[in-house]
Description:
Blueprint: H1 3-22, E1 24-25, E2 34-35, H2 45-86, H3 90-113, H4 116-136, E3 139-142, E4 154-160, E5 170-175, E6 177-180, E7 183-186, E8 188-193
Parallel strand pairs: 4-8
Antiparallel strand pairs: 1-2, 3-6, 5-8, 6-7
Amino acid sequence: MSLDNKDRQEKQNDETKEEVKKEEVHMSDDTAEVHVDSDEKKDSPQEEEIDWKKKAEEYHGKYLKALADLENYRRRTRREREELIKYAAGPLLEKLLPVVDNLERALSASKESGQEEALHQGVDIIYRQFMQVLKESGLTPIESVGQPFDPHVHNAVAQVESDKYESGIVVEELQKGYRFKDRVLRPAMVQVSI
Length: 194
């Protein structure tokens, strides 16, 4: 289509629009009367295209912002999770520091006094303090002697004859086993009666 034809067609379209705006359209009895105000302006296709492009750019900008927010959230939660894992043992270690202090005091006191009984009592007190800290943190010893052998919590290293216990009962504990909350941290090393 040449420029002249295009200009003529646009001029005719504009004239037709003007005529429609000025006229009132009367309809049959059953229909309502329609009146087009001359104040209403219809956007040209170019203006509509510009409006749609602006809206598209606006929505694209919102999309990019939401995408950036999501990525920032992921990075932040990943960093927080890594820090949580990295410093998870911190509270337990903080509770163990007084135990270390008391061990150091007991060692220095034993050097000065030369009394073995005082050293034994001091170490016993520290042992009980240490076990209390571990218990508060969720560590509990596994009771073994006199209990039926359970391969989930016991590690049998020997079978012995026993007059005191029936067959399959733990007779002696060679190394204590421990649970951390509901998991076996270390099974107890035991001897079992045959």
